[in-house]
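Workshop exercise sheet. Pairs work together: one partner reads the sequence aloud, the other fills in the structure field after running the prediction. Swap roles for the next sheet.
Pair: D.N. / O.F.
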Amino acid sequence: MRLRPYKPCDGDIIASWLTDEQTFAMWSAYRYQYPMTGEQLNARMNAAADNPCEWMMTALNDEGDVVGYFLLRNADYEKNSVHMGFIVINASRRGRGFGTQMLTLAKRFCFDILGMKRITLGVFEPNERARKCYERLGFKPYAVEDADFEFRGERWKVIEMECLADEEA
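Structure field:
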């Protein structure tokens, strides 16, 4: 697996993975409009282009196919911290280690290339599969927020997690 900057040609591919509304809600907290489109991701890319503290990344398998995506934002170069969000793996590839591979590369990028000391992310409480993946990769909860997020009558809390460079082996 390898990472590269997001390209406009990735948008429709990534959007095609987010057809289930609950998955979409857990992924985006409705910061995008459902149903997801490549145009929405490309609009975000255009906005990120002018923001020195935000960029989008795409994960490719060994054949060069797009298999994952995430956004890095809120980079704080004084505190050496960055937030990772909108993390998604192609649904047909889930459960086969692609998420672990992508996030391992993302951590290396953040720590080794960007020189960050802290990576944060948030995960909705019902998204246990994602949370367990993050924990296996060294992310630890540091706060639980009673978010104002509701999906079909359920209220979802956000578990804020962090991974610190000095705790890496």
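Discussion prompt: The mean pLDDT is 95. What would you look at next?
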